[in-house]
Amino acid sequence: MAEVTLINHSGTQTTLDVPPGTSIMRAAIANGVRGIYAECGGDTMCATCHVYVEPEFSELFPPVNEDEDEMLEATACDRLPTSRLSCRLTIPEGCGAVVVRLPESQR
Ligand code: FES
């Protein structure tokens, strides 16, 4: 299990225990975390699962691919160097913890 902490725009933190192989988006939705809509269900087609990965955790995940890069240009809030789609962030084996911040808005 990885300890995934989501910090919303007002600073409220939610920490979830997430098994390897689960995306941060799915874990957030399953646990009723507000601020992630995931309208396309994880198909890289909506950008409403946008998060900012804290820099020290960025190397846990594969780099942004072409599809994700295109969708990150369509986020409601600014794209930053730390922007990712949380449906593309699958918790790897051996991951201890991840911290992501949620944008102010997803749409
Ligand atoms: S859930 Fe739609 S892009 Fe991630």
TrEMBL record:
Name of the protein in its database record: 2Fe-2S ferredoxin
Assigned protein family: Belongs to the adrenodoxin/putidaredoxin family.
Keyword set includes DNA-binding: no
Keywords: 2Fe-2S, Iron, Iron-sulfur, Metal-binding
Chain ranges of the 2Fe-2S ferredoxin-type domain: 2-106
Cellular component terms per the entry's GO annotation: cytosol
GO terms under biological process: P450-containing electron transport chain
GO molecular function: 2 iron, 2 sulfur cluster binding; electron transfer activity; metal ion binding
CDD domains: fer2
